[in-house]
Structure formats: C-alpha cells, structure tokens
From TrEMBL:
Residues 1-45 are annotated as: Disordered. GO terms for biological process: methylation. Keywords: Methyltransferase, S-adenosyl-L-methionine, Transferase. The lineage of its organism: Bacteria, Pseudomonadati, Myxococcota, Polyangia, Polyangiales. Residues 12-29 have a biased composition (Low complexity). InterPro entries: Methyltransf_25, SAM-dependent_MTases_sf. SUPFAM superfamilies: S-adenosyl-L-methionine-dependent methyltransferases (SSF53335). PANTHER family: METHYLTRANSFERASE (PTHR43464), UBIQUINONE BIOSYNTHESIS O-METHYLTRANSFERASE, MITOCHONDRIAL (PTHR43464:SF19). It holds the Pfam family Methyltransf_25. GO terms for molecular function: methyltransferase activity. This is Methyltransferase domain-containing protein.
Length: 298
C-alpha cells in the first residue's frame, strides 16, 4: 500500500505536539497578517486529502443531506455552499433542479467533485459551479437566496477574526431576505476531557487508496483539547494489518458554545431565526449533539 499524502506528517505521541507553532491570534502583532499556524492548517486540510476515504467514511450519513436538499428546494436557490467538499450535499441539491455554487479550499475534494460531475447528466452538471477558495476571503460576483455551510465546515474557523471574515463574506453574498444555515457539533464536556495519551480503538476497516488499491487497517483515535483556543485536536492513526508503515491524519475542530455563537452572530449583524437540535427540525436542547442555525442579516 503506498502511503497517503498525510503519512508524511510526523506521528506525535498524543493528538498534537505541545509546542506552540505560532503566536496565538490574540497576541499583539504589528503585522496585519496573522502568523501562519501550521498545526491548524494541517488540522483543516489533511482529513480531506483522500476523497475516497472521506466518501466511504460518511456514506451512511444521509439525514443531513435530505435536510439541506429540502431547504434548497424551499428557497429555490441559487445556493452558495461554503466547504462543499466532494459534493456529498452539493450533488443531491443540483439533482433536484437547484443551482448551486460550491466553494472549498481542498484541491483533492474539488477534483473528486469535478470528476463526479462528469458522470452526471449535462443539466445537473450545468447547475454546479465550483470555486477553489477560502470561505473567509472569496468574493463572488453573485448573491444567493441561501448560503449553507454544512457538516462542521465552520469548525475550521478557529479565531474570532476567522468568524468575522466568514460572516462578512456571507453578508456580501446574500440577497435581501436571504438566509444562512449551518450545522456544528455541540461541545461535549466528557469528550473534551479525554486523556490525550489514551488511544481509542475502533473496528478494523478497508482503507481505500486510489494509487495502490485498498488494504485493511487498524484504526485508533486520540483526542487532545486545547482549552485556551477551544480547539479539539484529533489524531487519526492508521496501521495496515499486513505490515507497511503506519500514518496519522490530524484534524482540528474549534468548539463553539451556543451562547458564544449567538454573540458572534449578533455582533456581526445576524439574528437567529431558528435553532434545530437535529435534522428532523426538533428545537435544540441541552441534550442535542448537533446545532443547526438558521440566520438572517438584521
Ligand atoms: C467536513 S467537510 C464538509 C464537506 C461537505 N460539505 C459535506 O458535508 O460532506 C469540511 C470541508 O470544509 C473545507 N474547508 C475547510 N476550511 C475551509 C475554508 N477556510 N474555506 C473553504 N473551505 C474550507 C474542507 O476542505 C472540507 O471539504
């Protein structure tokens, strides 16, 4: 089995290296551009380097697809999807007849989606426009009835400045009466308290590898929560059972608490019009594991 790209990353003993890779964003700095944080950059990209693995991992996650498709049908598009990935939600929306523009930072995910579009009927493919870009910065020459940011893509916005930029871009791209809808995982205190030294094993599975075929791997996860930055670092460790080098894929998820999100939305010019706790549209409660925000500019 040939090593996937993320294999080049050095495997730390815990979910992340303890050494700070850059100054925290809140530290005073004379330069306008914040310093790069390689740890966070890897945590927002490595998991998306193998689109076949991503597709296989989330193949049974369909409840949110239905939710976003219904929303797109109700709003009738055009839809802007931030963090469209390899089209798990983009494609079903386009198949229902709604125009959608997908923005994503990951070339492998966008490449995979472009490939999938070539297999679609021409009218479906024509409804999809793709842009490689950062949802904090991309400026499009178009406004939308609906802007969506599904399945924790927002958890790759790690700082207040990131969120402010994202919400400013969203406002610029919304038509009057347009709506922003996104979903994030609820922070779970017991999950954030896990010991970073402990490896959590899950069942073995077949890891797809486009270059050398698939092979069965042992899979463990380690979790290391940075309380100051409110970032959960996950180390996903893969070991081929028939020998071969192990590798680790890092993932970094910002933890947003509901009151913090309400304040960020409010002070950036949005009001929450609905807050669901699952994809069957039940209101969010303390026991919800997902938070789905519907917002409008105020
Ligand atoms: C969890 S995936 C969600 C993909 C897709 N929406 C889905 O539901 O399967 C998060 C996506 O956000 C993208 N992403 C992360 N940070 C981003 C940023 N700053 N701007 C645009 N896309 C970003 C990643 O490349 C990845 O494809």
């Amino acid at each position: 089995m040939s090593p996937p790209p993320q294999k080049r990353l050095k495997q730390p003993s815990a979910a992340r290296s303890r050494a700070p890779s850059s100054a925290p964003s809140s530290s005073p700095s004379r330069s306008r551009k914040p310093p790069r944080d390689l740890e966070l950059e890897a945590g927002s990209s490595a998991h998306y380097e193998n689109p076949a693995y991503y597709r296989q991992t989330y193949a049974r996650r369909t409840h949110d697809v239905r939710y976003y498709v219904d929303l797109a049908l109700k709003r009738r598009g055009p839809v802007l999807e931030y963090g469209c990935g390899n089209g798990r939600i983009t494609l079903p929306i386009a198949r229902t007849g709604v125009e959608i523009l997908g923005v994503d930072l990951s070339p492998p995910m966008l490449g995979d989606l472009k490939k999938a579009l070539r297999e679609e009927p021409a009218d479906v493919a024509q409804r999809v426009t793709l842009r490689r870009g950062d949802m904090r910065r991309v400026r499009l020459d178009q406004r939308f009835r609906l802007v969506i940011c599904p399945f924790n893509a927002l958890l790759h916005l790690y700082t207040r400045a990131d969120m402010e930029a994202f919400l400013a871009r969203t406002r610029e791209h919304l038509l009057p009466h347009g709506q922003l809808v996104f979903d994030v995982s609820m922070p779970e205190p017991e999950e954030l308290a896990r010991d970073p030294a402990r490896a959590y094993a899950t069942p073995r599975f077949r890891y797809p590898d486009a270059s050398s075929g698939s092979s069965v791997v042992k899979y463990t996860e380690r979790f290391d929560y940075d309380k100051m930055r409110q970032v959960l670092f996950v180390a996903m460790e893969f070991s081929p059972v028939n020998g071969g080098e192990s590798w680790m894929t890092p993932l970094a998820h910002r933890q947003f608490y509901p009151q913090e999100l309400e304040a960020l939305l409010h002070y950036n010019g949005f009001r929450i019009t609905a807050l669901h706790g699952d994809f069957s549209e039940e209101p969010a409660t303390s026991s919800s594991s997902t938070l789905i925000y519907h917002c409008k500019p105020r």
